[in-house]
Structure formats: structure tokens, C-alpha cells
Write a structure and sequence with these properties.
The structure is a single chain. The protein is of the alpha/beta class. It contains 18 helices and 26 strands. The strands form five sheets. Strands 5-4-3-2-1-9-8-7-6 form a nine-stranded parallel beta sheet. A seven-stranded mixed beta sheet has the order 11-10-12-13-19-18-17. The chain starts with a strand and ends with a strand. The structure holds beta-D-galactopyranose (GAL). The site of beta-D-galactopyranose has 11 residues, from loops.
């Protein structure tokens, strides 16, 4: 049982000290609990090399704490100061074209640079020693949005050196690497690890196994970079939560690995900004939800990061109004800030924190709204935060997220693998996962995301494993013991860890699990779709021809072969379903497993939390939720939900 809390991101170094106490008083009066500070403050903490002075920060923390607020302190390593970069010019990341990423914004560092790591350890330790035992500090945030602005892969000299060592460690001798990668192709045999370069600036595409290993190496650098900070914080600031703020639709490193060392996971939710970035792909959808955000996008990330955080989730940055960074930046529909926040709680979030307290009148983000305008008057979101505070109080304690009936397996390396070798211009792993998620949400289901390292799926009725490029030991173990229905494919098990097609052809499962093989694959351009039979819809983007033996039956066929195979409790899906076909597959699985589903209208979404069922209206028009299965008594805004309306009922 928890009582959700709210917070805000605050930059005391942007404002005169004389303003801090009044800011703190107003935050507290608004009903906020947490304030995140410090994550970009390095040059203020150490204006000259070695001259660390955190007095101002201590004063800020004390000011906030004496107003009853709890502080989340960010380590400042996303913004190394100019003097530091000048003293170590090779610490910056190098982009794929070989260009250095210069000082003048943020994240101008390479994860592999040993000297920069030492500097990070030094500043984090200096901060933790000075402030770590301060009772006002409740939590730490390491760095800020690892990988933002495309900074995970760096093609620097330090990365090259680190990569060679990493390969040596992994393969032992160069012959093993040559075999594993298949360097016989295009005469790429290496005689020593010292001959291996980074996979950029090649004439045409570099070897996929080479690229995948470099991606794995780079992801590991994020994890070890972070772990060094965690070590220090645990030592000098025991008892505080350690968190990081991840991003939306971002999979460049293995978040499960980083979060494993933390006390939960948080993410930064900018629903309208994210939607605006999808305009080209889904223009009508983007127009329909232009002021609300995609109705499934936030939910998906709450579920993904709740999994990464092993049940503990926060939203560290919540959009409060127009942002500055999307192609267009409209204002949210009135009520959406309240809806997004409550939706996070419905997915098990403990805290939602707004970005930011006051709009900055200077700098790159001066067009980004906050809770306050630059003149300190209330901006639009404040009224919504106030009404949310009242809603939370009226609901009392919230139950914790319980196990959902269905789950989807998510695997970061699969995202890398299919970006390295998409084979079809629109084949994207994260999109495939998200389309699967959307289909389940359209059916009114509550969903869990599982890591590909989860080895126990018990309790689920059905688990979806789309696009998993190589089986993990844990997924195979879970699959073989699972009593529910598993839906695998397309492209699942189609490579081994070294990016090779398995000798016996995909999806390399033992015959008693699935007696079938993928014999041909094709990617489908937009004008080609494969009919899945009458009213069932089509396969788009991707289709596999399947051969099968005894014990396997097609659930339905297409003119080019089976669309879905079934062997006992395993299903293999031959391609990428369109919306209609996805809905049909979900309906079949529900019928097979006894899960209750309800086809929800566009924009109406629901989610179960313990004994409650929440309803959210993302649509620009009102909807009567009684027509979609809601029963009285209904709390909050229902039963006729206006746009941005929220309702809540007891399940059962
Ligand atoms: C996030 C970032 C913040 C701020 C915000 C603006 O990506 O963590 O520092 O830049 O976006 O929307």
C-alpha cells in the first residue's frame, strides 16, 4: 500500500538565493513532496579545478528541507565543465562520422574514457562526502538520461582500446572470434585483437557480428560507468534510494542491467513531444491525439520501467505544458497533466515529478514551460496539480501493481540486432513490441513487461515473445516450464548470439516444443500485404514461410503459407500483423486462455491496479464508460468521461 507523491525539478543555481525560501514554501503549499536538484550543476560546484564548494547546494537543500520537502540529488556528470574538457580534450564522444562532439550543450563525454571516469568518481565522492548524510536527501539520481542526444556509441580512441580488451576477455583467442563472427566473409580474418577497428567509416555496412559486439560493449560501458557512482553513493550516503531517469522510446543500452544496481527505475515522460516526433509515421493518429499524446505510449513505458525497477517506478520528469524540443510544441488539452500523472500511479508509480518548477528565461530551454512562468506566476499546470493532490487525498492509499494476466518479453540486444540488420526499412523491434502492446491495450488488458532474463513466467495466462533475435537461456527455461500460451515470432530465435542463422533454421526449438522451421523470409514494402483470410486483416512489413511437421497445425493460412501455427500451448506467428490481424490474434489467445477482453474505442484505455480499475479518456470527445463494461459506483470524473477524464471503480 502506498500513497503516491508528487515532485518537481528545480535548479537553485538559476535563481537568486533570496528566492529559494519562497519557492520552497510554494512547492510545499502546492502539495509537492520531492524536489530534484543538482544534476547539471558541476561548474557551480567546482568553478575551478579542485575547488569543490557545495556550500550553496547545502543551503539550497536545507531551505527545501525546512519547508518539509525531500531532495533527490543528481550527480552532475552529464555536464562536465569547460575547464575539465579543455584539460582532457579526448574525453568527448566521437560520432559515427568520426567528428568530436564539442563542449557547448551537454552529454559531451565518452563513456569509455578512463580519465573522465576518474573525474566523475572524484566529483561524486566529493559531493557524497559533503552532503551524503544530510537528512534532507532522500534519493540520488545518477547522471541524467544516459544516452540522450545519441551518446551511447562513441567511436573514440578510448572506445577502441576498451573494445579490444572487451573482445579479448570474451573470446580468449582471435581464432575463436574469427569463427564466432564468421570473418571468412569478405576476407576479414583477423590475426590479433590489435587488428580490430571500430565498425564505423567502412565503405559499405560493417560486419553485423562486429557491430553487435560493439553495441554490447558500449552498453556495458554505460553500466560500469553508472556502477562506479552507485558504489560511492552506497558507501557515503547509505539508506537513500539510487535512481536514474531513463527516456521514452530509447533502447541504446540495456536498461535492465543498469537498473539492476538501483532501487527502482524512473523515466521522463513528455507525451506530446513524443507524439509529435511520430507525425510522419502516423499522421492521422498524431492529429487525433495532438494535445493528448499517444494513448498507449506512456503506459508502455510505465510497464517497461516498472519491470526494470523490479516493481519500483517513478516518473522523474513529467511534461507540464509545451516543451521546446519537438518539431511542434502545442499545449496539452486541459486536464491532460492530471491524467498523465494519475495514469502513472495506476501503473504503480510511487512519485510523479514535474519538469520544471519555473520556466527559464535564458538558455536552450527558455521555450519549455514549467509549473511557474518566468515571472513566478502560476502557469496552466498548477491548477491541474492542485486538483490531482485533492484526488489523491480522496482516494487514500493505493495498492501495489499486481501481476497482469498477459506479458510481453522485452530484450534490448534485439533492438540493436534489428537496427543493424532491419532487412525491411520499417522493421523495428521496439515498434513491433509497441504494436503488440497496443493490441493488448485495445482489448482492455493490463500488461506486464518481462525482461528476456526473466526465467519464471508462472501466473501469466499468455506471454508474447515477438522479434527476440536470439534465445536467452532464461527465456528458454521460462518457456519450457510455462503452463500458459506463448506466442512467439516473427523473427524470434532467428540468430544465435553471434548473429548467425542457426544451422537447423529458425526458430531452433526442440521438436517437442515446436516442430516447425522458417524456410523463407521476406520483408514487405508498403504496397505489399499478405491476406490473412477474409476479415482477419493482413500481414504487413514482414512475412515468413513456415514448414511444419507432426503435432503442428495452422490456426489460419494465407496464400503464401500458414499465418499462425499451433503446437499444444505454443503459437508461432509468421509475420507482422496489421491492426485488424493483431486484434484477431489477441481475441483468439483470450478465448484459448479464458482471459476476459473488451474492445475499447479509440483513446479510451483502462488499467487495473490491485482491486481498482482505472479508466482514462485520451480521445478528444466524451465517452460513456458504462457502455464499455464499467459498473457503478464510479469515482472521480465518470461515468461520462470528458476528454482527459479519469474514472475509477472497484473490480469484480
Ligand atoms: C529531458 C532532460 C531535461 C530537459 C527536458 C526538457 O530530456 O532530462 O534535462 O532537457 O528533457 O523536456
Amino acid at each position: 500500500m502506498t500513497r503516491p507523491t508528487l515532485g518537481v525539478c528545480y535548479y537553485p543555481e538559476h535563481w537568486p538565493e533570496s528566492q529559494w525560501a519562497e519557492d520552497a514554501r510554494r512547492m510545499s503549499a502546492l502539495g509537492l513532496t520531492y524536489v530534484r536538484v543538482g544534476e547539471f550543476a558541476w561548474s557551480h560546484l567546482e568553478p575551478e579545478p579542485g575547488a569543490v564548494d557545495a556550500t550553496w547546494l547545502r543551503h539550497a537543500i536545507e531551505t527545501l528541507a525546512s519547508a518539509g520537502l525531500k531532495v533527490v540529488l543528481g550527480t552532475p556528470t552529464a555536464t562536465p565543465p569547460k575547464w575539465l574538457v579543455d584539460s582532457m580534450p579526448d574525453m568527448v564522444a566521437i560520432d559515427e562520422m568520426g567528428r568530436p562532439r564539442r563542449f557547448g550543450s551537454r552529454r559531451h563525454y565518452c563513456f569509455s574514457h578512463a580519465g573522465y571516469r576518474r573525474e566523475c568518481i572524484r566529483i561524486v565522492e566529493a559531493l557524497a562526502r559533503r552532503l551524503g548524510d544530510h537528512p534532507g536527501i532522500a534519493a540520488w539520481q545518477t547522471d541524467n538520461e544516459y544516452g540522450c542526444h545519441n551518446t551511447v556509441l562513441s567511436y573514440s580512441a578510448s572506445a577502441l582500446e576498451g573494445f579490444r580488451d572487451w573482445l579479448k576477455e570474451r573470446y580468449g583467442d582471435i581464432g575463436a572470434l574469427n569463427d564466432a563472427w564468421g570473418t571468412a566473409f569478405w576476407s576479414m580474418t583477423y590475426r590479433s585483437f590489435a587488428e580490430i577497428d571500430l565498425p564505423n567509416l567502412t565503405v559499405t555496412e560493417a560486419h553485423p557480428a562486429h557491430r553487435l559486439d560493439f553495441w554490447r560493449y558500449s552498453s556495458d560501458q554505460v553500466a560500469t560507468f553508472d556502477a562506479a557512482q552507485v558504489d560511492i553513493l552506497r558507501r557515503f550516503s547509505p539508506g537513500r534510494l539510487i535512481l536514474h531517469n531513463y527516456m521514452g522510446r530509447f533502447a541504446d543500452f540495456d536498461h535492465f542491467k543498469v537498473a539492476a544496481e538501483h532501487d527502482g527505475a524512473t523515466w521522463d515522460s513528455y507525451p506530446i513531444g513524443f507524439l509529435s516526433e511520430r507525425r510522419e509515421r502516423e499522421p492521422e493518429h498524431a492529429a487525433h491525439f495532438v494535445r493528448q499524446g499517444d494513448p498507449d505510449f506512456q503506459a508502455f513505458h510505465h510497464d517497461l520501467y516498472r519491470a526494470a525497477g523490479r516493481g519500483r517506478l517513478w516518473v522523474m520528469e513529467q511534461q507540464p505544458g509545451p516543451v521546446n524540443w519537438a518539431p511542434w510544441n502545442p499545449a496539452p488539452l486541459p486536464g491532460m497533466v492530471r491524467l498523465w500523472s494519475m495514469e502513472a500511479f495506476a501503473h504503480g508509480a510511487e512519485t510523479v515529478s514535474y519538469f520544471r518548477w519555473r520556466q527559464a528565461p535564458f538558455g536552450q530551454e527558455q521555450m519549455h514551460t514549467g509549473l511557474l512562468r518566468p515571472d513566478s506566476s502560476h502557469d496552466a499546470a498548477v491548477a491541474e496539480v492542485s486538483s490531482l493532490v485533492a484526488d489523491i487525498a480522496s482516494l487514500g492509499t493505493f495498492e501495489e501493481a499486481s501481476q497482469a494476466p498477459v506479458a510481453i518479453v522485452f530484450d534490448y540486444p534485439s533492438d540493436w540486432a534489428w537496427r543493424i540488420q532491419p532487412q525491411g526499412a520499417d522493421f523495428n523491434y521496439s515498434d513491433l513490441i509497441f504494436e503488440t502492446y497496443r493490441a493488448l491495450r485495445r482489448a482492455g488488458l493490463t500488461i506486464d513487461i518481462l525482461s528476456s532474463r526473466a526465467e519464471d513466467w508462472s501466473g501469466y495466462h499468455a506471454v508474447f515473445v515477438p522479434g527476440l533475435f536470439a534465445w536467452t537461456r532464461e527465456t528458454l527455461k521460462a518457456l519450457s516450464r510455462f503452463e500458459g500460451v506463448t506466442i512467439i515470432g516473427p523473427r524470434t530465435g532467428s540468430r544465435d548470439r553471434n548473429f548467425r542463422i542457426p544451422d537447423d533454421l529458425p526458430p531452433i526449438l526442440p521438436e517437442h516444443i515446436l516442430n516447425a522451421r522458417v524456410i523463407t523470409t521476406q520483408s514487405l514494402p508498403p504496397e505489399v500485404a499478405i491476406d490473412a483470410g477474409g476479415r482477419n486483416g493482413h500481414f504487413i512489413r514482414w512475412f515468413e514461410t513456415l514448414a511444419h511437421g507432426d503435432g503442428v497445425e495452422p490456426v489460419f493460412n494465407t496464400p503464401e503459407g500458414p499465418g499462425l501455427l499451433r503446437q499444444d500451448r505454443i503459437r508461432y506467428l509468421a509475420g507482422w500483423p496489421d491492426t485488424k490481424l493483431f486484434d484477431r490474434i489477441v481475441a483468439d489467445v483470450a478465448a484459448d486462455t479464458g482471459i476476459a477482453i473488451t474492445a475499447l474505442p479509440d483513446g479510451l484505455r483502462r488499467r487495473e491496479l490491485g482491486s481498482w480499475r482505472f479508466w482514462f479518456n485520451y480521445a478528444p470527445t466524451p465517452v460513456d464508460i458504462r457502455r464499455h463494461g464499467a459498473k457503478k459506483p464510479i469515482l472521480l470524473d465518470g461515468p461520462v468521461l470528458k476528454p482527459a477524464g479519469i474514472a475509477l471503480e472497484q473490480r469484480g
